[in-house]
Amino acid sequence: MRADDDLHLSLQTLLTDRLGRWAIRCTQIIVVVVLAAGAVYALVQVKLVVIPVLVALILASALAPLVGWLRRRGLRAILATWITLLAGALILGGIVTLIVFAVRNQWGALAVAATEGLDELQGLLVEGPLALDSEQFNAVRDAIVGFVTSAQFGTGALAGVSAVVELVTGTLLVLVILFFFLKDGGQIWNFFLRFLHGERLERAHRIGDVTPEVLGQYVRGTAVIALFDAILIGIGLAILQVPLALPLAVIVFLTAFIPLIGATIAGILAALVALVANGPLVALIVVAIVIVVNQLEGDLLNPVVMAGALRLHPLVILVALTVGTILGGIAGAVLSVPLVAVGWAMIKVWDRPDQSITQRAKFSLRHRPKPAKPA
Where are the domains of the chain? Predict the structure, then answer.
């Protein structure tokens, strides 16, 4: 009996001393990391469903104020949802139509200008300060042409067809899920809360209020900034007579939703088009325009538009972009930052409400349209 008591005391001492407490804490951390890694792996396997759900959630958070405004004007939920979706489809369809016509009208001129631009670029590289060998330049160009006409490129093209099919499927899923989020978002959230009570229910309500507020503010603010960048850069490209100015402006708008690197990608693409079509001088001017616009956006517009949003440190954004790109490609890069912002907002309101985050959410909750009474 004495030996059992000594053994029990020894085990208790091993678990309660400093090293034992550290060992227990490390074991808990390892278990949490393994479970989180398993959950992420499972979500990646079904990303064809997960990504549309996340995209629909973000879009619903951005469009919810419009649906709420229509419902406060006396429209039923389903009618307000249809009006919002149809208006968005008309705007998107108009933009796509303008891009198609712009590309079709300027594609021939761009091809001719690209040929002349490549010849000029070759002369600049061969006869300029770099003094490259013309045979090396021709070898590089022949290698690119050979790759385009190779079987490897054909395999990539088939993979691209598969990606297009997945894109169409994901788009249809986004539209269907977005419709139900806009129409029955509150009911869907209450369905998941029906088993919670007390403090857990209050915490879930705080998270439910914070999530659409942070996502909506982030998306709307980013859209305003992206529109500012696209308009100014598009005007600059049009003045310089760079081909495909409208499609390039749309690309600037879309890439602005990828923080830190989106503006760089758009600027490089616009400069390349200007280089092959208009020459090195115009390309340098395009680069200067992109730099100036991004400085104006970062120093003047961003603090005003995103003042109400939950802003993150650039290092956090960079890490989120890297992880999101590895897990979900381009879609992961776009979704990673708003999801991290929402996660941080949830942490801030987990135990108690954070007034700086939930004040507007409470206001929108008080002004939420009442459900219509059954006839």
Answer: 47-366
